[in-house]
Amino acid sequence: SYGTGIRRIFKLYENCPVQPSIEATTNAFRIVLPNMNTCGGSAERAPEAAPKAPVTVTPQMKTVLDYLAEYGEMSDEDLQELLNVKKTRAYLLARQMHENGLIEIIGRGAEKKYRLKQDEKQ
After folding, report:
1. Which residues in the chain are classed under CATH 1.10.10.10?
2. Domain 59-116, what fold?
3. Helical residues (DSSP H) of 1-122, grouped into ranges
4. Is the pLDDT of residue 9 over 90?
5. pLDDT at position 45, please?
6. How does the average pLDDT of the chain come out, rounded?
7. Which residue would you say has higher pLDDT here, 30 or 122?
8. b/e burial code for range 79-98 (CB count within 10 A of at least 16 → b)
């Protein structure tokens, strides 16, 4: 049975403002699927669920937060030395802390610095 997936595709897009389109030519057909992450259907629901999960602060994160509270900012090298970890682990930890809203990353490459996240209410 051909075409049963077409109904399922349209069902998935029923709450999305931009609908899939089917274009027929002489030899084939083409279905254009809008990106659901940008059309607003499921993209509006995803951010609501994310803030509900509490942020787990690991001992390494606590060490970094304490250092930043005392000194204000740190470099990649400072982070590696403070935690006695290699570059990859330092990068992964910093990225995780940034995604959790604990720190902000200023600059790129060798000039990259980490600071405590500033509240936007200030």
Report:
1. 59-116
2. Arc Repressor Mutant, subunit A (1.10.10)
3. 4-12, 36-39, 45-49, 59-71, 76-83, 87-99
4. no
5. 45
6. 82
7. 30
8. bbeebeeeeeebeebbebbe
